[in-house]
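TL;DR need structure tokens for one chain.
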Amino acid sequence: MAKIFHYSISSTVLAVLLTTCVLVFSRAVRSEVQKWSDIGMNGTTPKLGFIPMPENNESTLIWVQGTNRTNTKKWSSRIQASLETYYYEDRYVPRKSCSYINPPKSGEVCSFDVREWGPCQPDRYFNYYKNAPCIFLKLNKIQGWVPEYYNDTNNLPEDMPQQLKDLIKYNITRPEERNNIWISCTGETSVDIEFLGPIKYYPSHQGFPGYYFPYTNSKDYFSPLIAVHFKRPAIGVVLNIECRAWAKNIKYNKDDKSGFVHFELYTV
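>> reply
TL;DR here they are.
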């Protein structure tokens, strides 16, 4: 009888503890969901991510061995797996061919033309075999966030790279085509800049087109991606690279890693 009573008490205590844990967890989940919901509503700064990520998520080093087929295939396969939905778009999902003068209407989502990535394609192994790798950049999705553009050629940030300023001022002549979240990549130190070599961006307008925003939590949504082609990085040098997103309401903060992404590139 004593044993039965003991088991009964133990079971009751365990049940209470389990119920308490479930309640606490549920509240935490609701709090987290609310937090992210508020982020979407309040337009908090999005963050940049890059593809391919190294196998060790704690590392940001992309180590390229162009003469090593195993290494080249590892990186190109990882990129292709990440971009599979872009290359094999579901033809049964209605997507609109959007443009700056023909943005999506409510309920519509834009398609993405992978040909805009130029030479950064799987049939070229994303140029890893040439030690001239392509890195893809994307913004994380924040529901309801609307970018505020740097589209006034007379009012560009002082710290914006001159190359990007010149592109906006002289290469993009139609005002509506300046409604982009601009991207720039550079070495973090003078040594990194010296050895980084030329960079080419695809699409050539060097930005995420504004007609992809805001994100409305549609399961068929394509995040716009930019391919950054590092054409001739120095061999045998670890290069520290920072890529930054430019919009008036994108906060650039190294403490919480807002508005930019850092990675290292090493080619041998």
